[in-house]
Amino acid sequence: MSKLMEFLSANKPFYLATVDGDQPKLRPLGAVLEMDGKVIFGVGDFKDVYKQLAANPKCEICTDNGEGLWLRYTGTAAFATDYAYAEAMLESAPHLRNIYNDETGHKMMCFWLEDAEARLIQVMGEGEKIDC
C-alpha cells in the first residue's frame, strides 16, 4: 500500500475541493482504493461533485491525522472508463450498493489524480513530498 493510500485510509473522511463557476466547493469523501498502481476515488454520477469535476477537473484532497500532520493532494481528475474500477470500489464498500445499483440508476464514477503532487505537512513545517 502506498504512503498516500495508507494516510487516506487511516484518516477518513478526507475532503475534496472542486470549483463551481468561481465558487470553491468542499465535501467529505471516504470512497477510496488502490488499484493498478493508482489511488482511486468514487463519486456519484448524479452529484454536483461529478459535474464540477467534469467541467473543471482541477481539484485538491486534504485530510489530517488529528496529531498535527496533514495531507494535501493536488492534481487533475481523470475518470475511469473501465467499469472494473467502479465494481472494485463497490466491493470495497458494499454499503454503497444501496445507492449505486440498477434500481436507483445511479452510477459510481471513479477517478484518480494526474499531474498530481502529494505532501504530508506538519502544522508548522514545509512538508514532505510523497509518491502518488
Describe the structure.
This protein is about 20% helix and about 45% strand. It is an alpha+beta fold and about 130 residues long. Strand 7 and strand 8 form a beta hairpin. The N and C termini lie close together (about 10 Å).
Q: Give the proportion of residues in helices.
A: 10-25%
**Mean model confidence by pLDDT:** 94
Taken as a percent bin, the fraction of beta residues is: over 45%
Elements, N to C (H/E): HEEEEHEEHEE
What's the short version?
The chain has three helices and eight strands; from the N terminus they run αββββαββαββ. It has helices at residues 3-10, 48-55, 83-92, and strands spanning 14-20, 23-29, 32-35, 38-44, 58-64, 69-79, 108-122, 128-130.
What attributes does this structure have?
132 residues, alpha+beta, globular, 20% helix
Q: Secondary-structure map with pairings?
A:
Layout: H1 3-10, E1 14-20, E2 23-29, E3 32-35, E4 38-44, H2 48-55, E5 58-64, E6 69-79, H3 83-92, E7 108-122, E8 128-130
